């Protein structure tokens, strides 16, 4: 079916920002695993007479996110009320932004098999989260600790043509907000959620399809992928029957990604947006915007490009390092002030042996990750062998013993003193006269001598150096 | 000699400070008066006796010991029942909030408590401020103490009646389109609708967020100015409050008005204005002339559209503000299982006809396909109204108008015709969309003993000017009577 | 107002549904008339030439923010106080929304 039809997807991504207090009141925003209704006040509980006062930090984080997504910033912005009824929406409206979102007309790049693709970001705006409904045996328990937690909504253009692009975008967004310090975007905690708008069109069509199916409240990227697969099949079958899928909001049944048509009332939403009269206008000067812009760190794509260009790090290795903030911070700290050859070499060890140790072994408290750089440097300097280096790293990681001490105790340092090497080679030549004769006639036989010399050196020497030495001597 | 409940705040403070009376005596006198009058007037939805007397005793004790006391120490007051009070019911005059107890205090309640004023009760009102007669209250009508067959005005009718008969020495009303000024006019007292943002709205149950104001209702101008100086000011919990300096409003009341300009709005003295009202306003004009003022005729040509714009925006905001009344967390709750039906039924049962009407029309005015025609158009007209009034203040210091075009209607006279009721508010509703302050005070009396109110309107944050003009008027009327 | 602009009972019911207010047939009939009158009255707004006018805010204030500092919330028992019989372990309980 993928031959005849093409997916058209737009996404709305909600990210809870990491503030100390809620969006419009001073309740503690860190509500995870707290007893129900203990982070609640008249404002976020929607009591009569309570009034919202916006959190400055939250607005700054929203501006930062918008800038990182290459958005233009509305220098005059405001909050609006989005009116609808739901038990976990205490005020009967959500404070959001309607026609003057903080950011608009941005984009972000994702990497696909076909190369880099630009995904348009329609708008980035600030709103507030709702309370939490927990369904249990025919009852719904309402907890308003989450009510009023700041939420950034990132709306994309309908630019996605495959599930893989959607996944790449979501992961990229998650990296970006983490880099920015805007959110942990921990999906298990509901800090990042998705809304899908999806339709199919005949391949080659340029216009957007005449219908669009919306699926809200998708809690993870893996469920999002399943919903796309399910919808692809469902919509395809309808189209193949010569019909057009209904334009509607479909509900998610469970984590399998299957969706179901919702009561028609849900589809008649009329949010009656109007400016929030309780909050004065917001005017953002270029100076304020620039100040926030200056706090934006190097973002994942730039970082990756730089790793590749500046250090010659391999693409996949670079991707593995930039994937999360702690990883690249560690990498950058252990490779600070070293040459690019070493950075590139360390990167391989870092995502290879070091990653596997981190994942499988217990790290000793005394172990310092900068020792990895020292170790790799010694390998490059031919002071130790590559295979010994792996063992040294593992031992040091487990025991916390300094790598230099392990090398010394075990006598693993390579012999690089030419006079020592010459003595050994001379000795091999004198005690293997027959083999020397053979080697002079047949260079292949020389490898026996190299093997003998390496054995005498217990492997603690660079084989290539020894080989060169023996060949030189054979020519004499 | 006056009975204690008849005292003004100023007089009472002097007697308390000189220890000629105690706070307990004063509070008791008001409570007795309430007991005497309530069977006829029904101004109160909640009377706070024990706690009020206890608070009075504590203040008396502090005074005896010479401990520091607040500016309003021992003064009994009432609150319109739209202000959240921790531990006491707050109903907004609606069945929807029957039995609702707020877990927090409105800012105005906190400020008055800090100055040791004593809350003795909460007063009746049209539900959520929806009305001009207090007849829409879910808890029965309030009668006008000046003529018990007539309405006290509204929506803060309970506050107006309570101040007029001595059920507390002042009250805090709430004014969205005249809800303080109308009952002030009908009950013959003084009521201020302050500049938008002058007094914190935090804890005041919202009608129309961009109109709502919190203001004092008092027996005279001095008291009004004194109370405003206590309740005004920036509040971190209300983002729309201004940092504009709070003046000691009661301390600059008798500056000479010589050469000042009083604007008389010609549209406000035309057809439909009661002859007795016109007479009183003309008398006021004469008084200002005698005080050395220049009278300037001013035109506010968009007045006839002001009422329409006022209502469209007001009820649009109200429809959203009242959405939180869903039966889930507080207030009335329909006995239905399904949550959606529960919300719909709760609102069907809890809202009275006036609430339903306003919420429905407001919903309509904001809905897709109609928002441009109604809500957005009304906002544009509002911009013109603001221009209109601000232009007038380039020519004059204040505007003088009747507060209400008519004398208080008889109870039941208008209840079947909501539109007629709306039109009665023509002179007050035009002010709130613009946000300027307006002060209602008695202009004079009719031959039947009713009071006629006049309204002084000033530029933003010029409450001091209004009080100055009002105080000298009040003084000259008193002088004539004496 | 034009007779064809009159609000019908069906329209009243549709508005009531949007406003989440239960309105029975008798009420709907009464409101149809009253809402019709009100809309006819506010219809006069269209007579005003509002070209170029925009109302942005009731206040001149801009950028009114709170610093991001948490303060104590209400106690749980205060939060559920108005629904004591409908609370369970501090949560409010309603019949399932699913």
Automatic annotation (TrEMBL), chain A:
Domain of life: Bacteria
Record's keyword terms, sorted: ATP-binding, Ligase, Nucleotide-binding, Protein biosynthesis, Transferase
Catalytic activity: L-aspartyl-tRNA(Asn) + L-glutamine + ATP + H2O = L-asparaginyl-tRNA(Asn) + L-glutamate + ADP + phosphate + 2 H(+); L-glutamyl-tRNA(Gln) + L-glutamine + ATP + H2O = L-glutaminyl-tRNA(Gln) + L-glutamate + ADP + phosphate + H(+)
Enzyme Commission code: 6.3.5.-
Pfam families, per database record: GatB_N, GatB_Yqey
Domain Asn/Gln amidotransferase: 329-474
Segments traversing the membrane: none
Keyword Transferase appears in the UniProt entry: yes
Classification via Gene3D superfamilies: 1.10.10.410, GatB domain, N-terminal subdomain
Family: Belongs to the GatB/GatE family. GatB subfamily.
Task performed by this protein: Allows the formation of correctly charged Asn-tRNA(Asn) or Gln-tRNA(Gln) through the transamidation of misacylated Asp-tRNA(Asn) or Glu-tRNA(Gln) in organisms which lack either or both of asparaginyl-tRNA or glutaminyl-tRNA synthetases. The reaction takes place in the presence of glutamine and ATP through an activated phospho-Asp-tRNA(Asn) or phospho-Glu-tRNA(Gln).
HAMAP family on file: GatB
Stated name of the protein: Aspartyl/glutamyl-tRNA(Asn/Gln) amidotransferase subunit B
Organism: candidate division WS6 bacterium GW2011_GWF2_39_15
From TrEMBL, chain B:
GO annotation terms (biological process): translation
Gene Ontology cellular-component annotations: glutamyl-tRNA(Gln) amidotransferase complex
Keyword list, A-Z: ATP-binding, Ligase, Nucleotide-binding, Protein biosynthesis, Transferase
Signal peptide: none
Keyword Ubl conjugation: no
Gene Ontology MF terms: ATP binding; glutaminyl-tRNA synthase (glutamine-hydrolyzing) activity; transferase activity
Catalytic activity from the UniProt record: L-glutamyl-tRNA(Gln) + L-glutamine + ATP + H2O = L-glutaminyl-tRNA(Gln) + L-glutamate + ADP + phosphate + H(+)
Gene3D superfamilies: Amidase signature (AS) domain (3.90.1300.10)
Origin superkingdom: Bacteria
Domain Amidase: 25-466
Catalytic site positions: 80, 155, 179
EC number from the UniProt entry: 6.3.5.7
Family (UniProt): Belongs to the amidase family. GatA subfamily.
Function: Allows the formation of correctly charged Gln-tRNA(Gln) through the transamidation of misacylated Glu-tRNA(Gln) in organisms which lack glutaminyl-tRNA synthetase. The reaction takes place in the presence of glutamine and ATP through an activated gamma-phospho-Glu-tRNA(Gln).
Subunit structure and binding partners: Heterotrimer of A, B and C subunits.
Protein name, per record: Glutamyl-tRNA(Gln) amidotransferase subunit A
Gene encoding the protein: gatA
UniProtKB/TrEMBL annotation, chain C:
Source superkingdom: Bacteria
UniProt keyword annotations, A-Z: Transferase
Entry GO MF terms: transferase activity
UniProt entry tagged with the keyword Transferase: yes
GO biological process annotation, one example: regulation of translational fidelity
NCBIfam families assigned to the protein according to its UniProt record, in alphabetical order: gatC (TIGR00135)
Protein name per the record: Aspartyl/glutamyl-tRNA(Asn/Gln) amidotransferase subunit C
Organism: candidate division WS6 bacterium GW2011_GWF2_39_15
Lineage: Bacteria, Candidatus Dojkabacteria
């Amino acid at each position: 079916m993928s031959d005849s039809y093409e997916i058209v997807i737009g996404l709305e991504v909600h990210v809870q920002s990491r503030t100390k207090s809620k969006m419009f009141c001073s309740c503690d925003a860190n509500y995870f695993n707290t007893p129900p209704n203990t982070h609640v006040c008249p404002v976020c509980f929607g009591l009569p007479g309570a009034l919202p006062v916006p959190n400055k930090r939250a607005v700054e984080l929203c501006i930062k996110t918008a800038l990182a997504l290459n958005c233009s910033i509305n220098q005059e912005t405001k909050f609006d009320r989005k009116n609808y009824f739901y038990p976990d929406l205490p005020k009967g409206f959500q404070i959001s932004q309607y026609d003057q979102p903080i950011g608009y007309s941005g984009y972000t790049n994702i990497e696909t098999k076909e190369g880099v693709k630009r995904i348009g970001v329609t708008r980035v705006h600030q709103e507030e989260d709702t309370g939490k409904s927990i369904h249990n045996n025919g009852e719904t328990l309402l907890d308003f600790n989450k009510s009023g937690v700041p939420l950034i909504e990132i709306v994309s253009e309908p630019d996605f043509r495959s599930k893989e692009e959607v996944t790449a975008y979501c992961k990229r967004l998650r990296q970006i907000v983490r880099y920015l310090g805007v959110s942990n975007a921990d999906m298990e905690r509901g800090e990042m959620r998705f809304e899908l708008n999806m339709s199919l069109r005949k391949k080659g069509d340029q216009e957007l399809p005449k219908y669009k199916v919306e699926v809200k409240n998708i809690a993870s990227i893996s469920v999002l992928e399943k919903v796309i697969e399910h919808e692809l099949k469902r919509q395809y079958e309808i189209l193949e029957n010569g019909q057009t899928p209904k334009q509607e909001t479909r509900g998610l049944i469970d984590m399998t990604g299957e969706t179901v048509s919702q009561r028609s009332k849900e589809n008649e939403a009329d949010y009656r947006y109007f400016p929030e009269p309780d909050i004065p206008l917001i005017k953002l000067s270029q100076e304020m915007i620039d100040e926030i812009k200056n706090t934006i760190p190097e973002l994942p794509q730039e970082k990756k490009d730089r790793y590749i260009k500046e250090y010659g790090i391999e693409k996949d290795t670079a991707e593995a390092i930039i994937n999360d903030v702690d990883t690249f911070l560690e990498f950058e700290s252990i490779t600070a002030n070293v040459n690019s050859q070493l950075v590139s070499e360390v990167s391989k060890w870092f995502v290879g042996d070091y990653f596997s140790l981190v994942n499988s072994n217990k790290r000793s408290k005394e172990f310092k990750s900068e020792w990895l750089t020292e170790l790799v440097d010694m390998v490059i300097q031919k002071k130790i062998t590559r295979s010994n280096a792996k063992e040294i790293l593992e031992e040091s990681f487990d025991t916390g013993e300094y790598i230099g001490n392990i090398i010394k105790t075990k006598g693993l340092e390579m012999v690089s003193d030419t006079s020592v090497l010459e003595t050994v080679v001379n000795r091999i030549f004198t005690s293997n006269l027959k083999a020397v004769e053979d080697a002079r006639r047949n260079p292949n036989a020389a490898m026996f001598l190299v093997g003998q010399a390496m054995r005498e050196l217990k492997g603690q020497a660079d084989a290539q150096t020894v080989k060169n030495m023996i060949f030189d001597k054979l020519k004499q | 000699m006056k009975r204690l409940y008849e005292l003004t705040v100023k007089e009472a403070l002097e007697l308390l400070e000189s220890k000629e009376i105690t706070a307990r005596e004063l509070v008791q006198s008001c409570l007795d008066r309430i007991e005497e009058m309530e069977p006829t007037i029904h101004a109160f939805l909640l009377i706070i006796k024990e706690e009020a007397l206890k608070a009075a005793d504590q203040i008396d004790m502090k005074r005896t010991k010479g401990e520091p006391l607040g500016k309003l120490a021992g003064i009994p007051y009432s609150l319109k029942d739209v202000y959240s009070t921790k531990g006491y019911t707050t109903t907004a005059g609606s069945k929807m909030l029957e039995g609702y107890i707020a877990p927090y205090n409105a800012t105005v309640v906190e400020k008055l408590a800090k100055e040791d004023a004593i809350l003795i009760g909460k007063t009746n009102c049209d539900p959520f401020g929806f009305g001009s007669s207090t007849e829409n209250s879910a808890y029965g009508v309030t009668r006008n103490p000046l003529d018990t067959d007539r309405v006290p005005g509204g929506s803060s009718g309970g506050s107006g009646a309570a101040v007029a008969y001595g059920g507390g020495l002042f009250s805090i009303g709430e004014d969205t389109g005249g809800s303080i000024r109308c009952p002030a006019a009908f009950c013959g007292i003084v009521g201020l609708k302050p500049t938008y943002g002058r007094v914190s709205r935090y804890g005041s149950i919202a009608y129309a967020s961009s109109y709502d104001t919190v203001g004092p209702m008092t027996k005279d101008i001095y008291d009004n100015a004194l109370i405003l100086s206590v309740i005004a000011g920036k509040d971190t919990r209300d983002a729309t409050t201004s940092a504009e300096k709070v003046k000691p409003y009661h301390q600059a009341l008798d500056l000479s008005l010589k050469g000042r300009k009083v604007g008389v709005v010609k549209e406000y003295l035309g057809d439909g204005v009661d002859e007795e009202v016109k007479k009183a306003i003309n008398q006021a004009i004469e008084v200002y002339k005698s005080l050395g003022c220049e009278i300037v005729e001013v035109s506010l040509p968009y007045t006839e559209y002001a009422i329409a714009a006022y209502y469209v925006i007001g009820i649009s905001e109200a429809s959203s503000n009242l959405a939180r009344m869903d039966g889930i967390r507080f207030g009335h709750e329909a006995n239905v299982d399904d949550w959606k039906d529960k919300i719909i039924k709760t609102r069907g049962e809890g809202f009275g006809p006036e609430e339903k009407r306003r919420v429905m029309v407001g919903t309509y005015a904001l809905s897709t396909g109609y928002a441009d025609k109604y809500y957005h158009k009304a906002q544009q007209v509002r911009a013109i109204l603001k221009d209109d009034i601000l232009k007038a203040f380039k020519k004059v210091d204040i505007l003088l108008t009747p507060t209400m075009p008519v004398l208080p209607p008889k109870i039941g006279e208008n209840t079947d015709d909501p539109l007629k009721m709306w039109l009665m508010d023509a002179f007050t509703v035009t002010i709130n969309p613009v946000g300027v302050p307006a002060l209602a005070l008695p202009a004079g009396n009719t031959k039947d003993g009713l009071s006629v109110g006049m309204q002084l309107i000033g530029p933003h944050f010029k409450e001091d000017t209004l009080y100055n003009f009002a105080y000298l008027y009040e003084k000259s009327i008193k002088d004539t009577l004496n | 107002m034009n007779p064809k602009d009159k609000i019908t009972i069906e329209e009243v019911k549709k508005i009531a549904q949007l406003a989440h207010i239960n309105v029975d047939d008798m009420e709907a009939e009464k409101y149809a008339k009253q809402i019709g009158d009100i809309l006819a009255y506010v219809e006069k707004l269209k007579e005003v030439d509002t070209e170029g006018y925009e109302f942005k805010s009731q206040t001149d204030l801009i950028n009114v923010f709170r610093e991001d500092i948490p303060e104590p919330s209400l106690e749980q028992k205060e939060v559920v106080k108005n629904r004591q019989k409908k609370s369970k372990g501090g949560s409010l309980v309603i019949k399932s929304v699913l």
